[in-house]
Design goal:
Blueprint: H1 2-6, H2 13-31, H3 37-52, H4 56-80
């Protein structure tokens, strides 16, 4: 999980591969009934909080807010250029 978090928000192929490996191990554990889905989710949430200092939900809210602000800025710029 430390390696995965080192990529931050970037999603190069190496990060995607690592994510698939990690989730594959978790899925195998759930299928073998060695671990419950809730425990996997809890482990992911804790690792995310340790890596980024925010929960996944907090990051999603921040990402959504940034996207809304960028969208408003684009609309404003287009209107300023006489395109909107």
């Amino acid at each position: 999980m430390v390696k995965l978090s080192a990529f931050g928000e970037a999603k190069p192929p190496a990060r995607q591969q690592l994510w698939h490996e990690i989730t594959g191990f978790f899925e195998a554990g759930v299928m073998m009934k060695a671990i419950k889905t809730e425990a996997v989710q809890s482990a992911l949430d804790k690792a995310h909080l340790n890596a980024f200092g925010m929960t996944r939900e907090e990051i999603q809210v921040g990402r959504s807010s940034r996207q809304q602000m960028m969208s408003k800025a684009r609309i404003s710029t287009m209107r300023g250029l006489g395109r909107g």
